[in-house]
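#dry-run=false #mode=assembly
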Amino acid sequence: QSVLTQPPSVSGAPGQRVTISCTGSSSNIGAGYDVHWYQQLPGTAPKLLIYGNSNRPSGVPDRFSGSKSGTSASLAITGLQAEDEADYSCQSYDSSLSWVFGGGTKLTVL
Amino acid sequence: QLQLQESGPGLVKPSETLSLTCTVSGGSISSSSFYWGWIRQPPGKGLEWIGSIYYSGSTYYNPSLKSRVTISVDTSKNQFSLKLSSVTAADTAVYYCARQDTGANCYSDWGQGTLVTVSS
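#status=ok
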């Protein structure tokens, strides 16, 4: 069981907006540690999508955005495209002295 | 462009030691701006941080794996390595090496990953 909790799956039609939640606790997200998001296309390595809660690396479309509040964080994807179908994982730091990941969320584009 | 490449046996017997090496190209492992880490992903499951190392040799391990993990760095070869002892079937996973930015603390670059199966 992952320290950060994500929904196993979400779905949306092309053009729609979807959000993926990442729920932690007072020892990680709630303690003020940053949240990062990764996109993992089928059979490939994770790719950094959002860092520092809401920042996009160069080359990541502005359709992707991140936010953080309290003990949770969210990834939003607007204008959903077929190429967005992938697994998405959140990451933060826990005061147990460990970097922690969410269990991952599979996004299906209908 | 930075590239990371994992190498090592794809099959390890139970109770033995898993050994992997990550070769870094297109950048120096001796940069003070990065940690170098190992992350794994069991089949169909989420990512798990194993540990990280700084070019100076300082190491940071997942407390749940600490007793079995050793990460080392060879700056002359631009490589860092992972050893995981006393493996069981639960250690079967895709193992990734990655570069972690010391400022943002995110993993900005990843290797392609290598599947290690623990089986007799």
